[in-house]
């Protein structure tokens, strides 16, 4: 159950980051105002996702040591890199992909302690 909560917290955090990106993209070329921002569905999705992700994270911290749980959030770097490449068509160089492989390796090593 703890692993599911951890993955859900990661996914919600990533969804929040992606929604933030969509929100700022929808503001591009417009004069940014608080009123415009507050009418953005993407911004509200980002806030809700990050908020629920935080609540799940608190449940994770009740069950795992922070020294084990926190590095697992590094999976966010991996997920966001994949989304940036495929959804936003961002160019990711070889060195960045090597970093992703190292992050995954570190998470696997730490996950063996849990």
What brief labels describe this structure?
114 residues; mainly alpha; single chain; 6 helices
Residue runs with pLDDT of under 50 for 5 or more positions: none
Give the number of domains.
1
Strand count, sense and closure of the main sheet?
A: none
Q: Element order, helices and strands?
A: HHHHHH
Oligomer: single chain
Indicate the overall shape: flat
**β content, as a range?**
under 5%
Computed CA radius of gyration, to the nearest angstrom = 16 Å
Q: What share of residues is helical?
A: over 70%
Counted beta strands: 0
Per DSSP, the total helix count is: 6
SS content category: mainly alpha
The average pLDDT score comes to 89
Distance between the termini: 13 Å
Structure overview:
The structure is a single chain. This protein has one domain (2-111). Helix content is 80%, strand content 0%. The longest helix has 26 residues, at 2-27. The chain has helices at 2-27, 34-38, 41-63, 66-72, 75-86, 94-111. It starts with a helix and ends with a helix. The protein is mostly helical and 114 residues long.
What's a concise summary of this model?
The protein is mostly helical. It has helices spanning 2-27, 34-38, 41-63, 66-72, 75-86, 94-111.
């Amino acid at each position: 159950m703890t692993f599911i909560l951890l993955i859900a917290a990661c996914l919600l955090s990533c969804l929040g980051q992606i929604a933030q990106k969509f929100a700022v993209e929808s503001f591009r070329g417009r004069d940014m105002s608080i009123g415009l921002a507050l009418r953005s569905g993407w911004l509200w999705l980002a806030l809700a996702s990050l908020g629920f992700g935080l609540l799940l994270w608190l449940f994770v911290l009740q069950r795992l040591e922070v020294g084990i749980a926190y590095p697992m959030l590094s999976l966010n770097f991996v997920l966001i890199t994949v989304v940036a490449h495929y959804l936003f068509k961002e160019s990711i160089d070889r060195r960045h992909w090597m970093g992703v492989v190292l992050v995954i390796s570190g998470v696997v090593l730490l996950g063996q302690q849990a």
